[in-house]
């Protein structure tokens, strides 16, 4: 009996062992650019009932390896990447080891007919690139790229249009890797529709040499690449909007794109007196008067027309060209209240000004890229011309600490100017058989500006011994600024992952300022009497030679670069004032040091950068020529100045986990000024006239940081996003007032939070809050400290129900704690719009109301090292505007719906599981 039991046991054991025999499945996953896809999920499942058998994820190199038991029935294998898409393959059975080799996931080679719902990541991190899925961030109909960027976590945009992402400044904006009206991206920000954008990619900025050689970036700045939806790259798109509202406000926008293969042609045009292409929440809280950005100086009317062309003629040659015509007219009524700090007292000044400015501009640029075998040549020439006229009426008063009037100034001015600038960039890259390469770069800029102004001013002093100043003058200013930069280097590999570079850079800066002034002659009725007190000439010729050597290390997880050299300066400053020649020659040899190291391991990236920055004083800072352009603020150079010297350190960390859908970014910057050129100001407390020269100080520093956390969550058709961040800085600024050194210790904290809830395509609710606390502590001033707190709470809603009707609201509450008397501290701003699409989404009618509560204002406060400034500018008042948008798109030979309909269909397609045909 026991033998039979033992035999049965071994039979079962043998059967069990055979049934559990394992086979191995291996492979590697990359995207279309051959970048490995990290954390892509690999799943094997039963085809009959779709149950999962086993799964794994790809490693840092995109590779995977896992075991499954032998499958003698049909199974499927899915490789799912959060952003690129899905690879799917079926097997009748699996009885042997399988090596899939390299699997390339490219969304454009998959059949989109099979609809399988899939979660789409709003943001993923791949190596040193952050990719945002544009369809995951909702913006109102007809929104532009700028409005979309404002929704992305980590993005900040200031009044001048400068963009930072997680604390790093954006250095270029490209469309599908190509320039679009230049690399600054301002045209794209204001004109590119959000609904044709697929991805937004943020990566470390690379020079042309680094792109060609494959070197890692050594820059502390970032590059922004906008990827258009693939179905928008073959055919044409026409979008035109016209709007008219109360108080005769208007807007008109046109954008036409034509794509055929590698050929891209874009036409843009716009004209508006609301200085924007869309409403943005909380404009007044940041001191901007318009519905968009960069409008802090009053109300503007802007008109522009542009044409952009890019084409790849053959495998070797790529060409492009663009032209822009711009016209702007702005006017502003400004009031400014200034508290001036000094060791002895605090005195105040008030100023009212009324200004008008009109500018015409022409910009033409071309680009050529030629590649053959191991040679690449870039050539980018451009030319710009602008002409402007301006007028201003200004009156100001200065009061002592006791409140009595000490001086009063009234001035009217009218001027016109023309400016011409030619720029060219040439880059030559040559690789050799031994994997070494040679790089030559040149940047040349030749510019000239001619300005003519007529100024009539009266400066009155209440103290009798001081003479009043009366001026009726014609000022002619001709300036040139020519810059020539050349850099040649040779890089040689000394190991598989190490290289050395030897190079030399040469910079030549040639500038001139020729200011000639004539008094009005009552007898002749002409401006024919030379004013020697206001006539002066400056010129600077600076030669800079920088020989250097560089070591480069590039491993899979670790990269580093160390650069050592010298900056050899020769600067010849020359000036003429009151028939006397002034000259100053500076010869300096200073270190040129740079270094960076980066560690990349899976989702984690850590980098450290250092550079030593030096520069010489300008001619106006070293030549002892008296500049009395402003009778109340007089400047004079100091010939004994030392160069500026500063140490700069950047530390960056990022982590994004696809499994938990959460990310962390941190940025820390420290700048220590070994030597700084600062103002040395004396105040005449009888007249409150200020005379400023320059001095060197040691020890100015600034520590700044940025931290952000983002989390994504989805349940059914509900999508949630959380973005939390804080930026902070602390620094010391030193200067001189009344011959005594003062110190300002400034602190700024700005925490913020934004929540986002999407209920399918029907409703988006996004509340946000931002606190900004600033404090300045002073040493050797009458005042000990100044502080200010601002609060900004906002909530944005986008409702689309029924599907052809969209209702958008931007509501914000803004508070500023320490505005001066007469300045309103808080206000509500509510902008709302209603859009309806019809005729198969080819037409869209809408109405929008700006500042529904009629409370918006432009009051701002700025705390400087020597003053606190409260400012009020002109802003747009409440208005209602009606608009009509026309969409005509044809892609792939078929006419498609308008933008909103097309965006919805793309959003649905992006949630499909894509399979090979």
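-> sequence recovered:
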């Amino acid at each position: 009996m026991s033998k039979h039991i033992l035999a049965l046991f071994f039979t079962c054991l043998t059967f069990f062992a055979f049934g559990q025999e394992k086979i191995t499945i291996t492979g590697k996953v990359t995207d279309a650019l051959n970048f490995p896809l990290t954390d892509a999920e690999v799943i094997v499942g039963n085809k009959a009932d779709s149950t999962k058998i086993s799964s794994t994820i790809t490693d840092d190199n995109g590779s995977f390896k896992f075991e499954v038991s032998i499958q003698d029935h049909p199974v499927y294998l899915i490789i799912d990447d959060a952003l690129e898409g899905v690879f799917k393959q079926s097997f009748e059975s699996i009885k042997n080891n399988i090596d899939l080799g390299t699997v390339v996931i490219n969304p454009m080679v998959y059949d989109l007919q099979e609809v399988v719902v899939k979660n789409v990541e709003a943001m993923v991190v791949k190596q040193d690139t952050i990719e945002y899925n544009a369809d995951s961030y909702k913006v109102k109909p007809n929104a532009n790229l700028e409005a979309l960027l404002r929704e992305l976590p980590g993005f900040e945009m200031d009044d001048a249009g400068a963009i930072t992402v997680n604390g790093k400044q954006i250095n270029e904006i490209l469309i599908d890797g190509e320039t679009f009206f230049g690399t600054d991206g301002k045209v794209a920000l204001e004109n590119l529709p959000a609904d044709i954008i697929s991805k937004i990619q943020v990566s470390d900025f690379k020079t042309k040499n680094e792109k060609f050689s494959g070197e890692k970036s050594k820059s502390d700045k970032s590059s922004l690449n906008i990827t258009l939806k693939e179905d928008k790259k073959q055919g044409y798109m026409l979008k035109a909007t016209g709007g008219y509202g109360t108080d005769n406000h208007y807007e008109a926008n046109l954008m036409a794109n034509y794509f055929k293969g590698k050929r891209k042609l874009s036409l843009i045009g716009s004209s508006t007196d609301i200085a924007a292409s869309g409403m943005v929440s909380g404009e007044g809280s940041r001191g901007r008067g318009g519905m968009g950005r960069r409008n802090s100086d009053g109300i503007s009317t802007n008109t522009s027309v542009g044409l952009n062309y890019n084409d790849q003629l053959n495998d070797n040659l790529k060409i492009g060209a663009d032209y822009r015509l711009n016209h702007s007219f702005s006017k502003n009524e400004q009031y400014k209240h200034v508290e001036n700090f000094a060791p002895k007292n605090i005195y105040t000044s008030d100023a009212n000004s009324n200004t008008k400015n009109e500018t015409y501009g022409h910009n033409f640029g071309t680009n050529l890229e030629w590649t053959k075998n191991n040679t690449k040549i870039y050539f980018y020439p451009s030319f710009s011309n602008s002409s402007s006229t301006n007028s201003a009426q200004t009156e100001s008063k200065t009061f002592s600490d006791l409140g009595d009037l000490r001086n009063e100034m009234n001035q009217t001015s009218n001027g016109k100017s023309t400016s011409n600038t030619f720029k060219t960039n040439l880059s030559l890259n040559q690789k050799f058989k031994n994997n070494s390469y040679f790089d030559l770069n040149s940047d040349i800029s030749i510019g000239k500006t001619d300005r003519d102004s007529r100024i009539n001013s009266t400066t009155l002093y209440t103290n009798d011994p001081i003479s009043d100043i009366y001026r009726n003058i014609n000022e002619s200013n001709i300036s040139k600024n020519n810059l020539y930069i050349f850099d040649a280097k040779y890089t040689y590999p000394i190991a598989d992952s190490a290289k050395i570079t030897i190079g030399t850079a040469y910079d030549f800066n040639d500038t001139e300022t020729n200011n000639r002034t004539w008094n009005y002659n009552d007898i002749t009725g002409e401006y024919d009497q030379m004013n020697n007190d206001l006539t002066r000439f400056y010129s600077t010729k600076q030669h800079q030679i920088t020989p250097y050597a560089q070591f480069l290390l590039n491993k899979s997880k670790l990269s580093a670069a160390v650069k050592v050299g010298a900056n050899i300066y020769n600067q010849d400053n020359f000036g003429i004032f009151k028939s006397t020649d002034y000259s100053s020659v500076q010869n300096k040899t200073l270190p040129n040091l740079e270094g960076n190291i980066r560690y990349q391991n899976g989702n984690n990236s850590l980098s450290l950068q250092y550079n030593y920055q030096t520069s010489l004083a300008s001619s106006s800072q070293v030549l002892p020529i008296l500049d009395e352009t402003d009778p109340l603020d007089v400047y004079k150079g100091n010939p004994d100045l030392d160069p500026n010297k500063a140490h700069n350190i950047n530390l960056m960390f990022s982590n994004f986990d696809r499994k938990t859908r959460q990310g962390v970014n941190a940025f820390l910057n420290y700048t220590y000024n070994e030597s700084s050129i600062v103002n040395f100001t004396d105040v005449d407390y009888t007249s409150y006239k200020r005379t400023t020269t320059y001095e060197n100080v040691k020890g100015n520093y600034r520590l700044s940081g940025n931290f952000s956390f983002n989390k994504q969550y989805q349940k059914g058709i509900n999508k949630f996003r959380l973005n939390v961040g804080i930026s902070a800085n602390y620094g010391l600024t030193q200067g001189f007032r009344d011959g005594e050194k003062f110190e300002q210790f400034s602190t700024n904290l700005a925490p913020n939070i934004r929540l986002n809830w999407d209920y399918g395509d029907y409703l988006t609710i996004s509340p946000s809050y931002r606190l900004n606390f600033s404090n300045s502590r002073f040493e050797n001033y009458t005042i000990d400290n100044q502080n200010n707190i601002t609060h900004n709470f906002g909530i944005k809603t986008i409702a689309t129900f029924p599907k052809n009707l969209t209702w958008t609201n931007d509501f914000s509450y803004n508070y500023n704690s320490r505005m001066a008397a007469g300045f309103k501290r808080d206000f509500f701003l509510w902008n709302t719009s209603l859009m309806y699409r019809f005729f198969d989404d080819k037409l869209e009618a809408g109405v929008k109301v700006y500042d529904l509560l009629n409370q918006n204002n432009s009051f701002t406060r700025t705390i400087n090292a020597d003053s606190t400034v409260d400012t009020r500018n002109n802003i747009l008042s409440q208005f209602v505007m009606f608009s009509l948008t026309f969409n005509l798109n044809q892609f792939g030979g078929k006419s498609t719906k308008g933008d909103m309909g097309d965006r919805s269909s793309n959003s649905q397609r992006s949630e499909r599981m894509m399979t090979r045909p």
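The chain has three domains: 2-109, 123-230, 235-465+483-909.
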